[in-house]
Specification:
Length: 370
Amino acid sequence: MRPADLNRLTVQVAADRYVELIRAKMLTGALSTATAEVYARDVATFVRLAGEDRVLDDLTGEDVDAILLAFARKPDGRRAEPVAGGVQSASSQARFRRSLSALFKHAVLTGWVQINPMALATVTAKERGGLRPQRRALTREQAQGLIGAARDLSGGDSGGDRGGEGAGVPAEPAGSASAGAAVRERGRRRDQRTELRDALIVLLLSTMGPRVSELVRANVEDFYTNDGVRYWRIFGKGGKTRDVPLPGDVAQVLEAYLERGRGEAVKEGADKALLLSWRGGRLARGDVQAVIDRVQRQVDPDRRRSVTPHGLRHTTATHLLADAVDMDAVRRVLGHSDLATLGRYRDELPGELEVAMRAHPLLRKPSGGR
């Protein structure tokens, strides 16, 4: 017998109410705009595949399986060519499944369904074939090359208002591509110089691993000093905040950027923003990749590898863990809710197994010479 309080909503009505909840969470800061848009898009797809007039509580595990399979075969408009063995990528299938799980979890709590059909579904997304190389952690040499290039940019601009030829531009051989870029950089007006900003972006991403949305959303007031240590109050997912201390070198670049690199021409509405475009507006998240690529061009080709902001987040986690930093401390730096999530950010590093076996704890000589 059905519970008296069960609300037999159609798929469309339930979806509309759920999307309203998502929008409310976005407005209150509990969900980022990008996450809310993804949930809303997946819910709309679910409505089309399930049938808008069906009663949500009538959907079974078999129905959910059929919906998941239909989504897997659905053409991905972002791809020019279909993925081998299926149209949707494994990551897209896993994301869609997470969106449905969140919807039905809410449906159970609100009395829209008696039993969560996701618990009875048998179709799972195929295993991911690994992250794209650009989204994986840099090796120590690659990361140090990128950080070194960022330091060169920040150090080259340490002469304050001198603004003379070569200021903020690392020395390059005459006739090289970088030398041509340097000439173009020297020709810019002072308020168009972005070396300190670019250096700060790369250093924050490489050493602290924020999400790119957290980086571009940062305001000047989010950085404060306590007992001589600079902290960044990061506003993360779900309205959660975390206060993370800046490494000393990064704090110095931040100070230099705030003093003379942020620029004077700030557009209305962007006066609080930490990172500004050369036109004075808040830097867009899509511009961060271009900044990384620009700094990468200053790295020696033997130590250079393309990397995304997410790849630098992996770089932070991987090298902190490889250096035996406490796992919970790394989790707090990255803003993960649990250690299980952190495990997915730990990438393999070349030679780490060899190092581990050379220092095997069972083969160490006992202390005291026995």
